[in-house]
Amino acid sequence: MKALPLVVAMALGSVSLSALADWQLSGDDSRLWFGSVKNQSIGETHHLDGLSGGIDDSGKVTIEVATESLDTGIDIRDERMLEHLLAAASFAISAQVDTSSFDSLGVGETLATSIPVDISLGSASTEQEAQVLVARLADTRWLVVSDQPVWLSAESLGFEDGIAALQEIAGLSSIDRTSPVGFRLMFEAP
Predict the structure, then answer these.
(1) pLDDT tens across 123-166, in order?
(2) Which residue pairs from 66-71 have beta carbons closer than 8 angstroms and sit at least 24 positions apart in sequence?
(3) Which residues are bridge partners to 95 per DSSP?
(4) 14 and 181 in contact (C-beta within 8 Å)?
């Protein structure tokens, strides 16, 4: 479920470096979401709004995710997920991008691309490929969204034991071990 930040990092990778050198992620306009399925048929969407970071002039994308911004719509579930899944000291998404081919996007133009990203939660890390859509909204604003979900397994981030604990605590017959993750990232010039 921590896979959401990976998607964000991938999305960032598709923006032009010359246009986005030292651009900042707008936390107010950005979000990571992920889905979960319990008891084999009950699907739910959850999100994290506490995102910060940017793209430096070398093309290094860094996004920090504040796990305490988790919102599942149920307070006790938020507390349990934070305790059993997201208790790591750090949750980050990173990528190294060469965005020179995106410099020619004009305002209102879009580009679909694939970006490799690294998602780290505590000592666990996974590399994923994210399909993203980049839109230049203005001379100084870029929107990067997931063009399709990134599917993350619980095993890839060490969530197996935490999910088993949540399943037992909630008295559920099952919690799927794979989740779709998506994002909306807004970048602005300083």
Answers:
(1) 889 999 999 998 999 988 989 999 999 999 999 988 999 999 99
(2) 66/91, 67/91, 70/46, 71/46, 71/47
(3) 61
(4) no
Q: What domains sit in the chain, N to C, each tagged with a CATH number?
A: 4-188 (2.40.128.110)
DSSP 8-class letter at 141: E
Confidence (pTM): 0.84
Q: What is the DSSP letter of 190?
A: -
Read off the pLDDT of residues 48-101 as tens digits, 9 standing for 90 and up: 999 999 988 777 889 999 999 999 999 999 999 999 998 866 789 998 766 665
E strands along the chain, which residues?
Answer: 23-25, 31-38, 42-48, 51-55, 60-65, 70-71, 91-96, 110-121, 124-138, 141-146, 150-153, 178-188
53: tokens are 């970071």
Smallest Cα–Cα separation from 133: which of 157, 105, 114? 114
